[in-house]
Amino acid sequence: MNETSIFTLSMFCYLAAFALNSASLSLERQKLHTYGRAFNWLGITAAVIALGMRWHSAGHPPLSNMYESLVTLSTLIVLVGQIFTASQPLPVLEAGASVGAVLMIGVASVFSSDIRPLIPALQSYWLHLHVSLAFVGEACFAVAFILSYLFCLRRILGDASGRTDFSDSREKLACYSVVVGLPVVFIGGMALLARHLSSHPMYVDRWHNIVFWVIIPSILAVIAVAVMAWLFRGALGRGAERWLPDNIILDNLIYRAIALGYPLFTVGGLIFGMVWANKAWGRYWGWDPKETWALITFLVYSIYLHVRLARGWSGTWTACLSVAGFIVTMFTLFGVNFLISSLHSYAGS
Amino acid sequence: MRTILKLLVSLKSAVALITFLTLLSMLGTFVPQNLEAAVYLQRYPTVGHWILALGFDDMFRSIIYQACLWLLSLSTLVCILTRWKSTSKRLFKRLENVEKAEIMAFAAGRSFSGDLAADWQNQYPGFKTDDDGVLIGLRASGRMSLLGGMFIHIGLLAVLAGGLIGVFLGVETSLHGRKGENVVIPPLEALRAGRNADRISRVARNIRTFSPNDPRLEQMRQQVEALHKKYAEGMASPAFSIAFDELWVEHYENDAGHQQGVRSWNSRVRFIDSESQSDAMVIRVNQPVSHNEFTFYQASWNKYYSKVRLSVTHLPGISGWLDYQPTASFPQTLELTLNQPVKPAWASFTFVMQDFMPDFRVMDGRFVSVSSELNNPAAMIVAFDESEKVVGRAWAFPEDRAMLASHVSSLPFLFTFNSAEAEFESTLQMAHDPGKPVVWLGCLLFTLGMIMSFYVAYREDWVVVFPDGTVRIAIAGNRPAHMLVGDLDRIQNQLTHKQQETATNE
Question: Which of A159, A223, B154, B224 has the fewest C-beta atoms under 10 angstroms from its C-beta?
Fold first, then answer.
């Protein structure tokens, strides 16, 4: 069994975990949730084995190109989700982490999985420290993002009787923008990425993977959720109260995920990046687009922490900031590589 | 002054500043940086002049961006100074300053009545009795966490200060060297003069695009001339020089022994001062070398081909050369060096190789090289007669594409490419930045601050004993109240020795 088959196996484990966690919510069967967690752990184990095999055969950690980065990040997202829910089970977060991982593996299938030797710029132990720590931070941001999405969804669905308590129309608009707008933006973004890649000779054989593995399943899932929501619209409030924790708990969880990820991302993504840049290029900061976007990510989460800790903001607006932070994080990871040329352009191959 | 201070200390203005910096940074990555003024005007006809007027063509050195950084530094400094008072109070005089109303308001708290164990006061290191005779005890842990915010802000300030030192006193430039070359390095002052001259020249070019008669241009011209003079003086009496002794490339090899990409670019150099010289040192990517005040980094690498070996045969039927009768037998071998004339015995012309492309493609009707590998080589040869007049041009291609050359040749010869000798040019990045230690110190403080703030749990266990015997226990800290509530039972049991009693009864 080669490592690509093991990655595929881990993807199916995540899909099974998603199905079992979702079923445990709707059927209220705790056992299904236990199985769901077990499948997520199985997926993580398979992915770690595959990553280890890749590391062994390449002679360097699987962090040197887009394919390896996405597969590693997808594993970390599920892992952080599992650790985060170890003491406080939250099936809907675990299911969300599984979906995030599956989508990332789907996007990874567009990129070449060939093992190539490291280019001179990447031959440094700082590759291990800088990228891995930044990824753990980004995985925490991903968990915060899933929780923020659930927070906004909970606000829209309201209490058991379906009553919502939006303070004003801006808050309502913000929640709807996150819940309805994000899937549309995601699918649109993926379609643009597919279009961009289809015109690139390097991706001519693989760009359609993003259509079959990401865009079409996402559209079908959005339609299915919309139809279900319409059919069971009377029971949505009751369902939300059963499936999702209280907004205060969700808000605290978002903060905890960001408080965990922020130092890791700052040290790994920014400070270790500065040390490495200084060693490789002779300057610790050069306003290269990737560096600048890492700084932007840091600034957005700094705003979140300032308004939450010092001004006592909580609720919808901090959840929206967390969503904005994750969008910026993803742009730093993907957008910069595809849309803006930089010294980090090798990461886009 | 009071208003300014109030504005600087306000969190609203800090958040607004960070948001503005975020937006400017985003813009700085979308607008191409450091191009010539004319390019912006051509590429962005509607907003090009705004980009230039606001300095967004060099966003991160623009007045607006720099002003934001200065304001953020000031705001951070004021924040550190004003916060120190409350932080020190919390660190050293927490018990003295607490009011019982504050303790009563903590979310994780409970009241109970009953006898306390005889030694309960031993569990609390600090006590005070207020005016109403209420006894208040505090047991605190993880106080270090309170300093986290301070460390973060001092660290940020140090990073900004280090960056500022680097901008004014640092120098960053690149130098190129080929095997056997000796490259002189002027003193630091001369390098700074060169850097400043480049910056002023660029600004002057932009001003000239908009108003060619701007009176500032003359002043700038004089400044640039003075700086160039200083640089030239530095070049005349250099601080030291670098001898490029050896340049070589190491490749990865697959099992079959085929090359699979570059493993390492290597430059073996010596630093030569007026009186001494260093041992030979190897500079590689990620392996810089320091000498005097500078550090040298392997930045980039060029492969070029100056010597090319060709075989030549007679090519009859070329228009204008129908009567040409060669005087020697063919094929002949010809070795050409870029831009150096060669007159072989078998021809009455002088040949000059004017261009060599190791990997040529035809793009938009022009010949261009897409890499420095010998994948698809092409050499352009020009022939001159004795009066140095051009008599014709020809292209040389490898044997499998040699016939292509007959279509683009105006000489009665067919040149076929045989081989080319690769030579290397190493580009080193040379940097001097006295601000770096300050930046690293700032990063260290920032990291420590984050660890203290986010990973060290600060906790205050309060006990309030009222004269009527009612006891209030409460827990506060940097963790959510629902995580602390669970400990209230344990604290109550400790205070009343309930567990001990239960154990004794058993």
Answer: A223
